[in-house]
Amino acid sequence: MPSTIWSGAISFGLVTIPIKVISAVEDRSIHFHQVHIDDMGRVRTRKVCDIDGEAVSQEEIGKGYELTKDQTIPVTDEELDQMPLPTAKAIEIAAFVDADTIDPVRIGDSYYLAADGQVAAKPYTLLRRALERSDKVAIAKFAWHNRERLGLLRVRDNVIVLHAMRWPDEIRDPSELAPKEPELDEKEIEQAVQLADSMTIDDISGFRDAYRDALEELIEAKSEGKEPAQPAEGEEQQPGQVVDLMAALNASVKRAKEARGESGEHATVHEMKPRKEAAAKKTAKKAPAKKPAARKATTKKTAAKKSAGRKPRSA
């Protein structure tokens, strides 16, 4: 059983549900130490005071808020503990909302909430079933590490999950980042949708961290004194490379279908026919090309007249 991060209660109206908080995820990344290359000795990070240059122990380190470059205000742990935090030992449900109204950008780390003891089983199950039947999620407030946070409660596999959320004023406005709308042909949009359809799957549990797998193989080979295997060369597209959008979409659809074991024969979108206006313009531009033939006929008539007007040479 994973270790408990925090224990307290869920406050649901007048209902109190004792719970334990357990991280819903685990870090599977491979971590490295900083070492001295010559002898593989560990390189440690020392905390040094920038005024006297002396190393400082953990007991001598406190908190300070930089008011200006020349003035720092000290804040003690005791002062922080005395701050009014009504949610210090409770996850207080404030409201219920439809799940599809939550912007995913606001959702952060995830935690499982386990019922703390048999006495919590009934109210815990009551809240879980209320969330399931209403198809809603709960918005709650809670406080960890002397900071009040916003959270979201939902159900996953009969367990209540707490998602940490960003406060509304912590989300940047992305409107100024959107590019100016380019002109898109309907065929291009349809092909992009076809590509999305061809890449649609029902289960994403098969995804693996290929980089971590390769890193584990590298470490295993080196630990056994073997030569690490050379990585397979992959296709790379140069950054900033301009591509034919329709050709790229066609190739992507074909590749996605082949990867799924489907035939890629019908994946190609034929070249788009020019619009009527564009076709009319091209026809209008090509019309003058017939004039040289008229000039050629005129030249022949002129030559004939000149020939007829000439006097016959004397014998």
Give your account of this protein's structure.
The protein is α+β, with helices and mostly antiparallel strands and 315 residues long. Helices cover 29% and strands 24% of the residues. The protein is built from 7 helices and 11 strands. The chain has helices at 77-81, 121-134, 186-198, 210-223, 245-259, 276-286, 291-309; strands at 6-12, 15-23, 35-36, 41-42, 63-68, 71-75, 90-98, 107-115, 136-144, 147-156, 159-165. The strands form 3 sheets. A 7-stranded mixed barrel has the order 1-2-8-11-10-9-7. Strand 5 and strand 6 form a beta hairpin. Helix 3 (186-198) runs parallel beside helix 5. Mean pLDDT is 79; it is low at 269-315.
List keywords for this structure.
315 residues; alpha+beta; 7-stranded mixed beta barrel; two-stranded antiparallel sheet; 7 helices; 29% helix; disordered C terminus
Uncertain spans, ≥5 residues at pLDDT below 50? Answer: 269-315
Mean pLDDT: 79
Distance between the termini: 127 Å
Quote the beta fraction.
15-25%
Number of H- or I-type helical stretches: 7
The major pleated sheet works out as: 7 strands, mixed, barrel
Estimated structural class = alpha+beta
Radius of gyration: 36 Å
Tell how many strands the DSSP assignment holds.
11
The arrangement of helices and strands along the chain is: EEEEEEHEEHEEEHHHHH
Q: In one word, what is the shape?
A: extended
Strands of the widest sheet, in order across it, are 1-2-8-11-10-9-7
DSSP helix fraction: 25-40%
